[in-house]
Each structure stands twice: as structure tokens, then as C-alpha cells.
Design a protein that fits this description.
Elements (H helix, E strand, L loop, with lengths): L17 E2 L2 E2 L37 H8 L21 H7 L14 H5 L5 E5 L5 H9 L4 E6 L2 H13 L5 E5 L14 E7 L17 H10 E11 L2 H14 L2 E6 L6 H4 L6 H8 L5 E6 L3
Parallel strand pairs: 3-4, 3-6, 4-5, 6-7
Antiparallel strand pairs: 1-2, 7-9, 8-9
Helix pairs in contact: 1-5, 2-5, 6-7
Length: 295
């Protein structure tokens, strides 16, 4: 989509749809037959949450990426990278990964059991390659993190990071965000992160935007009292839309910035995503808000 008069192209995380007549984000290919390996319930030394619908077998994201022989990039970056929308075998690796929660809808209301503790749960919706959430989990071992990503080839990169540096307080789910209330029970999540989400530029797709009032209603159902949502993007049009959605949805802003990196207070403890590093280096201002819903 156009980035404003004379401006650069709009940016956003992949979430389907078309731009300029090009289908950027087709559906992922169907996976192979069979499900993830079943854990032996009698196996000794199982991790916290064993026996729950959460783990598979041995992860192999790094091997699969090496076999692909190509650099995994995001489809929205355009050019040759658009050919890497899918990596053959990625679904099989995800199905067998111990870092991915499987049968996620059976986990609703059971996240304390899955992590084996009662620490707060923070989630990122549309986590991409996982750099932001992996860094957050490393910096904050007192918090449990769940990364949600729809696209197998991108989730594969997050699995690779976990193979290189395993963190006990981080898990992944491959799912569509529209089903979020079927995976988390009311009050089970303390904080939600949305980072550089797909702008879905066409008006008829407004309800698919992650900061839309439709999604805000879903987030409200899973956030605990006093919970917050943080949203960052370089896309000014998407950010203006997100701010305008707050009042109709009954949310309030705790902080709003149209130049995050120029805001000393909001920059304290800020962890940059891959996109944030890229676009801020190009001189694009980063927008951010922190919002909450009084219940």
C-alpha cells in the first residue's frame, strides 16, 4: 500500500492479503500425515507440564534452514525473499518441536501447569522470527512468555533460536490470532505485545488488523484486571487507526508516542524487534502505545 504522499511503502508483519495485485502471503502448504510423537507418560524426568498437550519430539529448525540453503526472510521485504514464503518440511519440524505447544486449545486455563509455576504470562501475537520475545524471556526469567505465529516458515526461525539458546520460560504456538480466546482463559494473560503487525490496508479488511476493535474485544476477554497491551509500528496510518479504535472499544491509553526513540521514558527497557532495528536505522519514526481496559 502507499505510504502517504511521496513516502516509502507501508510496512507491516505478514498476515495474508494482496498488495498491488500480488498475493504476498498465501496459505501454508498442508503438513504431512501423522501428528507429533506421543510422550511416554511413564517416562522419568519429565519437565513441568509433561502429560499436558504441549510438547513434541526433538526440534530441528536449524537443520531444516540449512537444508533449505537460503536465507529466511519475511515476505513483506519483497524481492527474491518472497519466494521463501514456505520451507518444505517446516510443518513437520514444528509438529515435532518440544518448544511448540500442540493441541493449544486444550491448554486453556492450564498455563500454570504447562510452565510448572504461577508466574505471570505475557504473550506476543505475530511474533515473527522471535527475536523480541526470546530477548524478553532471557531478560525476565520471572515471567512466562508465549509467542504466537501463524506462518510455519517464520516460526521455524524462532525454533532455531531456541535450539541455540533454550529458555524454560518461553513457548510457541502456531495458530491464527482469531482463536486467542479459545487458548487462554479469562484473566490468564497479564500483558500482550503487538509488534509491527500487518496493516491490512484495504478498508474491508479493517477487522483483521490486530489493533482493531474486533481484536481488542478478544484481548479484553483474556487479560487480567490491570493488564496492558503494548503496540509498536512504523506505519503511521495503522497507528492512527489503532488510536482511533480505543474509545469505541472502551480502552484507555496509558502512554502514546509518535516517536518512541525520542521518548526517554518509554525507551527505558525497550527491546527492539528486527523491524524496529531496520526501520529506525532508515530514519523512520517508531510509534508506540500502552493501553488498558478498566473492568
Amino acid at each position: 500500500p502507499p505510504g502517504g504522499k511521496g513516502g516509502p511503502p507501508q510496512t507491516g508483519r505478514p498476515g495474508g492479503g494482496r498488495q498491488a495485485g500480488i498475493e504476498l502471503y498465501p496459505a501454508a502448504p498442508p503438513g504431512g500425515e501423522g501428528g507429533p510423537p506421543q510422550a511416554n507418560p511413564q517416562e522419568a524426568g519429565r519437565p513441568p507440564g509433561a502429560g499436558l498437550p504441549q510438547t513434541g519430539g526433538t526440534a530441528g529448525g536449524a537443520d531444516l534452514l540449512r537444508q533449505a540453503g537460503r536465507r529466511l526472510t519475511d515476505p513483506r521485504e519483497g524481492g527474491a525473499s518472497m519466494r521463501l514464503r514456505n520451507i518444505t518440511g517446516s510443518r513437520e519440524v514444528i509438529a515435532a518441536s518440544a518448544y511448540v505447544v500442540h493441541e493449544e486449545k486444550e491448554c486453556r486455563g492450564k498455563w500454570r501447569e504447562i510452565f510448572g509455576n504461577s508466574r505471570p504470562v505475557h504473550i506476543e501475537i505475530g511474533m515473527g522470527k522471535g527475536k523480541f520475545l526470546h530477548t524478553m524471556a532471557r531478560l525476565h526469567p520471572e515471567i512466562n512468555y508465549v509467542g504466537i505465529e501463524k506462518y510455519s516458515s517464520v516460526l521455524l526461525r524462532a525454533i532455531q533460536k531456541m535450539e541455540e539458546e533454550e529458555l524454560p520460560n518461553l513457548k510457541f504456538i502456531r495458530m491464527d490470532a482469531e482463536e486467542i480466546t479459545e487458548v487462554f482463559a479469562p484473566g490468564e494473560v497479564e500483558r500482550i505485545y503487538l509488534n509491527f503487525s500487518d496493516p491490512w490496508p484495504k478498508d474491508r479488511h479493517a477487522g483483521r488488523r490486530l489493533p482493531s476493535r474486533q481484536f481488542l474485544a478478544r484481548y479484553d476477554r483474556i487479560l487480567k484486571d490491570g493488564g496492558e497491551l503494548e503496540f509498536k509500528t512504523d506505519n503511521r496510518q495503522l497507528f492512527d487507526f489503532a488510536v482511533e479504535e480505543l474509545a469505541p472499544a472502551g480502552w484507555k491509553a496509558r502512554a502514546v508516542s509518535y516517536d518512541l526513540h525520542g521518548d526517554r521514558d518509554l525507551m527505558q527497557g525497550n527491546v527492539m524487534t528486527e523491524y524496529e532495528e531496520k526501520f529506525s536505522a532508515q530514519g523512520n519514526p517508531i510509534n508506540k502505545y500502552i493501553i488498558y481496559r478498566e473492568k
